[in-house]
Amino acid sequence: MRFSEAFGVDRAEADDWFDSHLTIDTKLFIDPLLLLEAGGDWTAAHEELIAHFVHCYRLVAKATSPSSVSAKAARRLLTFPEPFELGLGYTSAGTRGSGSGDRFAARMADGIAVAISAGLDHPEHIEEIGILNEGIGADRISDATANVLKRHLIAYTQDVARRHGIPLVARKVRNARVTLDAARWHDDIVELPINPTNQQPIILVPEQLLNGLPTLNADDWFDSHFNDDIRLSLNLKVGEGVSKASIVQFARQHPDRVRDWARTQTSRNDLAGYNFGSDPLGVVQWDKEASRFATEHPLAARVVTTHDDLLELVAEVVDRFQHFVEQQRGWSLLWNDDSSEKPEEAVQLLFLGLAQPYLRQFDVELDREVELGRGPVDFKASSGTTARVLIEVKKLHNGKFWNGLNHQLPSYMTSDVATHGWFIAVQYRTNRSATDRLKTLPNQVALVAGKTGKMLRYTAIDARRPRSASKIEDEV
To answer: What SS3 class is residue 108?
Structure first.
């Protein structure tokens, strides 16, 4: 369910807010540089963000030990709990992600100390900290920005709500504002819309502030012309990647290049946030067409109480998903206009968009990325306290495809004491490797089931782009 659906909002041109999903976090992030691009009050908000970190830099520089007053003050101001009200970023269960709270404050302070020792004694962009340090990525930068600017985002949300007549309810919001001199965050009672699925407050974010990654990120810095000499010395092949640890090492050796590159990015004419129209990551448009298909093609009424009932229902849902992808152009939601594949998460979300409305008709819960000891399983379908089926979705050409079948799914089933599992293989490519894997899949599923004593089923889905009629004629 989207925000607009929950509150019956018909969006107009003035509605520039991201229509967040109310049960699943969207893997997009606030890009601080886009605050400048947005202009107006958001430019002033960027200045406020920088001022917050300037103050933190001074405290870190002044600190004589981790237990000093300045060090403690810096860590307090660098404590950025995950702002779950936004519904953004990484998550392992619903819309409550891991966040960057107390345990990351020390890491952020250490990151600032590294920046200072590297010669960047004051911040021009907070993203520089992420380039100079491991473990400070898009999610941490976004969380920091959201916490510091939360009062602005709250006011923005209230304006949207009042314009559309959306009820506002007084709720306590963590880190609603900050007092720098006192190194203190304030939790305030604030009027906000309430998420009907969990009764938690909602904070909206303008679409123009969101991106898949910050514009200023470690990979793009390393790939810039400022580092031609480094890449040449490494004799890197075209498209060959470098670890974040290596990039951090080079950045610390050349902090001046980090600063110079960041300055060139702010003057670019092509700065833009996430493309919501084409949705290259497949994290935005996954539910509309899929849920519409589910509504137009209902399943027969039934009562689900046993494992067999649940397994039969899951089988029908997977079958509908296969039909949707292969015969109803669902495949088009898994490809970009330039013929590149969207990430594996896109097909997982598309499955969620179709399966969730089906399963909820029968009081079956479908939870995504449920942590089961050795990592998160893609999906867990459950009815009552005993009936459950674990589902793993993998691209056929994924380098960890066989690991997903041979080890991941069985280990998740063991951790959850689940007896039934379903492995969904999605084909994107036409090559010998894909053909060989498809031929091997049935026997391998049977082999794993025999070894583990688990009930395993599989489905192979063809998500390849259909060949044009002209190409087919040319081959005849």
So the answer is: helix
- Provide the strand spans (E) within 35-183: 169-179
Question: Distance between CA 373 and CA 108 in Å, rounded?
Answer: 28
The span from the CA of 37 to the CA of 440, in Å, is: 52
Q: CA 474, CA 476: separation in Å to the nearest integer?
A: 6
Distance CA 318, CA 302 (A): 17
The Cβ-side half-sphere exposure at 279, using a 13 Å CA radius, reads 19
For residue range 214-259, what is the model confidence (pLDDT) as tens digits?
999 999 999 999 999 999 899 877 667 899 999 999 999 999 999 9
The residue ranges of every structural domain in the chain are 3-267, 286-471
Strands 210-211 and 29-30: antiparallel
Distance, C-alpha 7 to centroid of its chain:
24
Q: In angstroms, what CA-CA distances link 385 with 71, 330, 356, 378, 422?
A: 48, 33, 19, 19, 19
Q: Are strands 420-427 and 387-395 parallel, antiparallel or unpaired?
A: parallel
pLDDT digit string, tens, across residues 372-403: 777 899 999 999 888 899 999 999 999 999 99
What is the per-residue burial (b if ≥16 Cβ within 10 Å, else e) of 96-117? ebebbeeebbebbbbbbbbbbe
Q: Which residues pair with 458 in a beta bridge?
A: 423
- Written as six digits, the tokens of 407 are 């080890």
Going across the sheet that includes 420-427, the strands are: 365-371, 376-383, 387-395, 420-427, 455-462
Pull the structure tokens for residue 383: 């009815």
**In which element (H, E) is residue 64 found?**
none
* Span between the terminal Cα atoms of the chain, in Å: 47
**Which DSSP string corresponds to 415-428?**
HTT--EEEEEEEE-
Number of C-alpha atoms within 13 angstroms, CB side, residue 329?
2
Instruction: Return d(Cα 330, Cα 357) in angstroms, integer.
Output: 16
Which is nearest to 174 in space by CA: 267, 36, 82? 82
